[in-house]
Amino acid sequence: MAASELQGRIKSEVITAMKAKDKQRLGVLRMVQAAIKQVEVDERRGLDDQDILKILTSYARRVKEQVKSYGDGGRSDLQAAAEAELVVVSEFLPAELGDAELEKIVRAAVAECGAAGPQDMGKVMKAALSQVAGRADGGRVSALVKMILAG
């Protein structure tokens, strides 16, 4: 079971955080490692970078929701901690796509699928999300697909 490049990077960051005695960063990195290990055990296989990227994207999405809910609830202390956690996780995610680049990918997916209207949204979303691979939020992609398919 060979470790992926991303998994190796996370492991080396854990060691760095331990040496620096950065407890907050270490805690976040260990939670990420635990999430990865849980999927490995559940699926009984080693994970590649794409699998780990999905786990990190999902983790980041949950933390973003926590930031929003803590902000809505007036819990600035918890909101700040969640934002710091998001910063650590974001280091391992690819850079977000710009609007122009995302639109180019979605338009290519529409052409590839031969989509004629909103009824083809599922096919277009599947094609677009495979190209985006964690570099844009699914909500952004969905909104853009709807706009393009609407005409």
Low-confidence stretches: none
Helix content: over 70%
Proportion of beta-strand residues? under 5%
Number of domains in the coordinates? 2
- The quaternary organization reads as single chain
CATH architecture of the largest domain: Orthogonal Bundle
Structural class: mainly alpha
Radius of gyration: 18 Å
Count of helical regions:
7
- Say how many strands there are: 0
Determine the mean pLDDT: 89
Name of the top-level CATH class of the largest domain: Mainly Alpha
Question: The biggest beta sheet, please?
Answer: none
Q: Order of SSEs, N→C?
A: HHHHHHH
Going by CATH, what is the homologous superfamily of the largest domain?
A: Uncharacterised protein YqeY/AIM41, N-terminal domain
Account of the protein in words:
- Helix content is 77%, strand content 0%.
- With 151 residues, the chain is mainly α.
- Helix 5 packs across helix 6.
- The longest helix is centred in the middle third of the chain and has 24 residues.
- It is globular.
What is the compact description of this entry?
The chain is mainly α. It folds into two domains: 5-90, Hypothetical Protein Yqey, Chain: A, domain1; 99-150, Orthogonal Bundle (Arc Repressor Mutant, subunit A).
Helix-strand blueprint:
Elements: H1 5-20, H2 23-43, H3 49-72, H4 76-90, H5 99-113, H6 121-132, H7 138-150
Helix pairs in contact: 1-2, 2-4, 3-4, 5-6, 5-7, 6-7
Task: Please name the defining characteristics of this protein.
151 residues, mainly alpha, Hypothetical Protein Yqey, Chain: A, domain1, 2 domains, 7 helices
